[in-house]
């Protein structure tokens, strides 16, 4: 919060009022921010500008700094733009704000949105507890009270996988992790990626989710392409090697695998190329290549060390393939009958 001599501004101005002020972080330096999601200085600043008001209390263990913004302006009367008083030794930051109806057409964000976001954050931050206090109104009395919801997955994606699958798994849970260093192009700097996946096969539950730097990749991108390539390659290779295909039969498609796969990935990298600002998909070439090679190798070892599970997986995928093809043939036959051809 204090004055930043390098930038000749107070730090609160940089954090809350200057777009992209955080872009000076060196993610490859190995400091605390190496695997952070944001750091370009857009999210916090744009939230402040789009708020009817924002109140900030930041405690660094020595001092507590208080700020208030209204309609994008700091309204503290202190010349420095903040009030400061002695800390009790604890640390942390509290931010309270209200979205501005002059900016948004609707600010009634449903509970389900917060529930989903905090659950996903708990999944990818092992052992970290998130608490959501939701104010609800009693329809009969009109009185309000707070309901508390706690989110914590001690073992991250592994616990989340167990919660999703329950007792429906065909195979044992697999949890793999690795770290690689590389670059997206020869003229680009090297960066690090930490990869972790958890998966099982099930003929009752199907789910694929990818996370990167704690953000849910709704549209996947590089990790999804890597997963599809690796699983299709290894399962197709096993089916061929064990003569499971019929003589004139075509190879499997990933959709046949997805019909019985529950797969979650959570990766962190020091450099990330997002498809757009919503961060729903990443495009890193190196991450895709590294994850593909790693998953291929891991699957090869897994099949060799667990031949019974390899049989279960590959035969279920083959059943899915043939069911899909038979359904397509039946659909075509019905179409011809209905069209009179």
TrEMBL record:
Keyword list, A-Z: ATP-binding, DNA-binding, Isomerase, Nucleotide-binding, Topoisomerase
Enzyme class: isomerase
Gene Ontology MF annotations: ATP binding; DNA binding; DNA topoisomerase type II (double strand cut, ATP-hydrolyzing) activity
The keyword Zinc belongs to this UniProt entry's keyword annotation: no
Domain DNA topoisomerase type IIA subunit B: 156-332
Leader sequence residues: none
An individual GO BP term: DNA topological change
Swiss-Prot/TrEMBL catalytic activity: ATP-dependent breakage, passage and rejoining of double-stranded DNA
PANTHER family: DNA GYRASE SUBUNIT B, MITOCHONDRIAL, DNA GYRASE/TOPOISOMERASE SUBUNIT B
Organism per entry: human gut metagenome
Assigned EC number: 5.6.2.2
Family according to the record: Belongs to the type II topoisomerase GyrB family.
Identification of the protein by name: DNA topoisomerase (ATP-hydrolyzing)
InterPro entries: HATPase_C_sf, Ribosomal_Su5_D2-typ_SF, Ribsml_uS5_D2-typ_fold_subgr, Topo_IIA_B, Topo_IIA_bsu_dom2
């Amino acid at each position: 919060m204090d004055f930043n001599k390098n930038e000749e501004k107070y730090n609160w101005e940089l954090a809350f009022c200057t777009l992209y002020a955080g872009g000076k972080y060196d993610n490859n330096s190995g400091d605390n921010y190496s695997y952070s999601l944001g750091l370009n200085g857009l999210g916090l600043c744009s939230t402040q500008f789009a708020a009817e008001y924002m109140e900030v209390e930041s405690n660094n263990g020595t001092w507590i700094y208080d700020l208030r913004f209204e309609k994008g302006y700091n309204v503290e009367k202190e010349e420095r733009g903040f009030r400061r008083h002695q800390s009790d030794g604890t640390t942390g930051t509290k931010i309270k704000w209200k979205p501005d109806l002059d900016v948004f057409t609707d600010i009634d964000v449903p509970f389900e949105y917060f529930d989903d976001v905090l659950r996903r954050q708990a999944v990818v931050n092992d052992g970290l507890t998130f608490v959501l206090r939701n104010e609800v109104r009693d329809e009969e009395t009109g009185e309000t009270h707070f309901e508390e919801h706690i989110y914590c997955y001690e073992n991250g994606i592994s616990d989340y996988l167990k919660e999703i699958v329950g007792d429906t798994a065909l195979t044992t849970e697999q949890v793999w992790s690795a770290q690689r260093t590389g670059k997206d192009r020869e003229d680009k700097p090297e960066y690090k990626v930490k990869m972790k996946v958890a998966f099982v096969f099930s003929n009752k539950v199907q789910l694929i989710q990818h996370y990167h730097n704690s953000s849910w990749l709704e549209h996947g991108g590089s990790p999804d392409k890597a997963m599809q390539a690796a699983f299709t390659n290894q399962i197709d290779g096993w089916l061929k090697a064990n003569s499971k295909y019929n003589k004139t039969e075509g190879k499997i498609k990933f959709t046949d695998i997805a019909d019985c796969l529950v797969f979650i990935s959570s990766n962190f990298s020091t450099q990330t190329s997002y498809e757009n600002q919503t961060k729903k998909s990443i495009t890193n070439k190196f991450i895709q290549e590294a994850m593909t090679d790693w998953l291929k190798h891991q699957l090869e070892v897994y099949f060799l060390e667990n031949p019974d599970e390899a049989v279960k997986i590959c035969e279920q995928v083959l059943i899915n393939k043939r069911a899909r093809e038979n359904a397509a043939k039946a659909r075509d036959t019905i179409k011809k009958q209905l069209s009179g051809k």
